[in-house]
Amino acid sequence: MTDNYPTSLFSANLKFSNQNQHGGELSIAGCSASKIVKEFGSPVFVLDEEDFYLRTKAWKAALEKSFAGGQLYYAAKSFICVEVAKWLKELKVGLDVCTQGELAVALAADFPTSDIEFHGNNKSESEIEFAIKSSVGTIVIDSFDELARVARVAKNQGKVQKVYLRLTPGVDTQTHQFISTAHEDVKFGFSIAAGDAQIAIDKCMAEGSINLAGVHCHIGSQIFQVDSFQLAATRLIAVLASYRDKYGKELPELNIGGGYAIAYTENETAISPNEVIPAIAAVIKSECEKAKLAIPKISIEPGRAIVGPTTTTIYQVGTTKSVKLENGLSRRYISVDGGMSDNIRPALYEANYCAFLANRSSSEKSISSRVVGKHCESGDILISEIELPADIAPGDLLAIPATGAYGRSMASNYNHMPRPSVIAVKAGQGREILRRENEADLLSLDVTQAPRPLS
Length: 455
Ligand code: LLP
Known about the structure:
Elements: E1 14-16, E2 24-28, E3 31-32, H1 33-40, E4 44-48, H2 49-66, E5 71-75, H3 82-90, E6 94-97, H4 100-108, E7 116-118, H5 125-133, E8 138-141, H6 144-156, E9 161-168, E10 190-191, H7 196-206, E11 210-216, H8 226-247, E12 253-255, H9 273-291, E13 297-300, H10 304-307, E14 311-324, E15 330-336, H11 345-349, E16 356-357, E17 359-360, E18 366-372, E19 381-389, E20 397-401, E21 421-426, E22 429-434, H12 439-443
Parallel strand pairs: 4-21, 5-6, 5-13, 6-7, 7-8, 8-9, 9-10, 9-11, 11-12, 12-13, 15-18
Antiparallel strand pairs: 1-2, 2-3, 2-17, 4-14, 14-15, 14-20, 16-20, 18-19, 21-22
Helix pairs in contact: 2-9, 5-6, 8-9
This protein binds ligand LLP.
The site of ligand LLP has 23 residues, from helix 10 and helix 11.
């Protein structure tokens, strides 16, 4: 590690009461796991507020150090609520939203709309109308249909809308296929190799209500390979050069998306902004120099890298059981009070996590365990195989770190489970920033209507 950026799976203020080892009571920002659960219930997402600030500032500073005028957009899909949007406003970073719902959260936080970019591969006409009416800074156009839609809506509103084009640079990344987005056979963006990117540029140039300011790519998520980002940037710069050759002027902006990997287990190390940004900058600078282009305004859109490690989920153990395996060994199942409804990532992407006993120490030996949820699915597995103390019993607390990104944001109500609360902790104090759902919330959607003819 060449800097002070925290690259482990833990948030900066997470501690275990037994020094120098994982053991004892877990506390985050001075709040013990037991007290958090006593006050707020479980399962609960515990967000280390200072850590969120630290990471956001680190990515912003690294970007600004490598690129004058560089712009950081936080990817709201990883996790957003009104309070977090207010933090981001205070931190003076931009926001990447991809639905009207995410935009509504930003508006509720009074987020400056000029610092918002609007993504998505299927934005509806009404979403585009709402976005343009709300004066979002940039719309990232994803398809030919949408290009026509944005042009039409902007024209109807008497506006000229700033846009980027999302391009697919044809980079195959080493990540799960469901979170890889820049190879050719994917639903997102305009292919550079197939010539769609050039056609989309020409169409934008012909539309008076569109101001094409730059190009964008997002090659996927949880990517450790720095050279994938470098290759994508190189291919986008080639597009900027051909634009200059055709139109005799330069596109001023380049957005290279998010996707920076974090640690989920103890043998992984997160990508540090102080390593990856200068490495990407070196390539962008040399490619621009070769092509005789001015360095465009660079923006990035990390989500996971900022919010992922800030948050730890605390569960309570409900039942345990031991099963005999065919090979003669045994496996102990530990069932917790949440599961695939608050963390779908293991089931969907075979994502790996770690768990720790969080309310006490144990001197028992660790045994092969499987941490499972309470849903009616065999696939409701949070951690397939992990060594955990043999005396873990009902009532104990288990903590799973690095659940801040795509945990609460992908949570569901499967089996009519209320979605957990998100608690921000800081300097020994805790507060809800997203309250726990309750049965009344769930039942509020049920209606009894008389049948009526459809018009
Ligand atoms: N920009 C765009 C256009 C994106 O589509 C995404 C994520 C990001 C930025 C932020 O990517 P990040 O820095 O967070 O990796 N649910 C999956 C991840 C899906 C990512 C979707 N797009 C997961 O849990 O791994």
